[in-house]
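Tutorial handout. Part one gives the primary structure; part two gives the three-dimensional structure as tokens.
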Amino acid sequence: MPKTKKKIAGRQAKDRAHEYIDDGSHDEIDDEDLPSDEAGRRKIKRNYEELLGIRIEKLKGRVLNREKINKSIDGLYFICFECKKICHNLDEGWVEEPTTQHNFCSACAKTKGIRSTAA
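Part two.
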């Protein structure tokens, strides 16, 4: 009877990388000088861009995800209606047009003359 290969106990299962999760190692050079939370948000934005792809045009101006950063701060990922970039309210700012409820980053809202209604 032929001998079977002996399995070695170790961390081989944990060493396998999941191909569907972007580890962000190729862009870590750009994120080294940023705080860890901002670098994490940048990585999540890149993952959203890859995931949504061409559907960004269809979803422009919509909120993608809300997150609770701590008890008093809420985070918000959205697609800017004007520039069609995936933005976070703590990084790019967030302005919602009151009549149409489209979401804009602060730079695009400033050029369009839209003011925030939040006090």
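Part three, for discussion. The CA atoms of residues 62 and 79 lie 6 Å apart. The first strand starts at residue 63 and ends at 68.
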